[in-house]
What does this fold into?
Amino acid sequence: MRVYNKYPITDSVLRWLETILAERFGHTWHLSRGEHHFILRLGGAEGTIVFDSMQDYFTEARSDLPFSQWDAVHESWQSVLGGPLPAPGVADLPTPLIESRRAEYVIHYDIFGLIYWMLARVEEIGRTDLDKHGRFPATSSHALKHGYLDHPVVDEWLHVLGQVIQRHWPGVVIKRHAYQMQLSHDVDRPSRYGFASTINLLRRMVGDFSRGDLFYALAGPWVRLNTKLSLQPVDPFNTFNWIMDQSEKHGVTSAFYFICGCTCDKLDAEYDIEHPAIRKLLRQIYNRGHEIGLHPSYNTYKDPAALKFEADQLRRICSEEGIQQDAWGGRMHYLRWAQPATLRAWSDAGMTYDSTLGYADHAGFRCGTCFDYAGFDATQSEILSVRVRPLILMEVSLFCDSYMRINQASDAIDIISNMKNTCKLIGGNFTLLWHNSDLFSHTKKGIYNTIF
It folds into this structure.
């Protein structure tokens, strides 16, 4: 029998879950547990909601959980997405799933175990079935294996819990949330030619010639020569003003995440954050009202000291340029992540939020939610100061041959639209990553403009 690492439900987990409920519903909540059940109380109100089916699966780092679905509508409850709710952790669900008993409601599904397992990413702690970049891939996840990666499963079950709350305490007004788009851009390559070595410049010119991009190929040496104080307009990767134009048309703030160090010569950035052209770009972004954030270099995901150094580097340079922000966030390079070490490193570096937690190989809801939430270290059973901003979709996931291999623009638009509409139905946040260096074709720009 295989033994899995366990991360039990402690008092710290209960306090963390209470904060999630307060953010989602408003009000003050008290969550306690018995040997096999949770009890939820509303501050100042009589009665309880009991969850009598705690599952040990949700305390284990594994993806081979049983799975079933629940037809909420059949039992006179609403399904926010209109279909059956995925129910990880159980093979069979009792009927009815939710019962009213005098001064309490009883729910025969471990909603809080599910929230803990998904949001704290218990599933992937210490996993070894990783890809070539050391990432836990969607293909290893329970969600993709059982076909619910496109479901924000935590949000769906919280929507059901909200209905139970309102039936049990009819006078309670549940907090309402408005849909938002959170648009971000990892600045891996701010220029195709401006910071290139001689050999890389020649390789890119040859590549441009072979694709028929003669203008860009011929412009390459001129761009590199003249990228002294600012990026050049003819550079195909210099799409920053275009991106900001589109965002401003639709009342959206774009966040641009910059690499501030080098821990891998082959896979980190060619540019230096200290370069005058990059400093000027930082000022341009800030002056237009957009956000600047951190994109830690390739090997920092397991190196807290290096990550903190790069975070301090970004804040120092921004301070020197007169850039002041209330919040500092960002995303790991290549979406590299070790749970919970990387999240703790973000917290220890004094960062406000991280937006790495989406899968590189497939779009979807890795954390089961489209809401930001407080980070939690299940190995130490500790609430962290950094917030998690789940990444729902990255354009590379759609188009890369190693990932989803979407070749038709219409198919890409459908996927983007479906993800966005799901977040709208939930009233959550559609967090999208699109690299500035992947917008030099008319086709990509056309697809990009459909996101708004």
User: Anything to note?
Assistant: The CA atoms of residues 12 and 381 lie 6 Å apart. The chain has a mean pLDDT of 97. The radius of gyration is 23 Å. DSSP finds 13 helices and 16 strands in the chain.
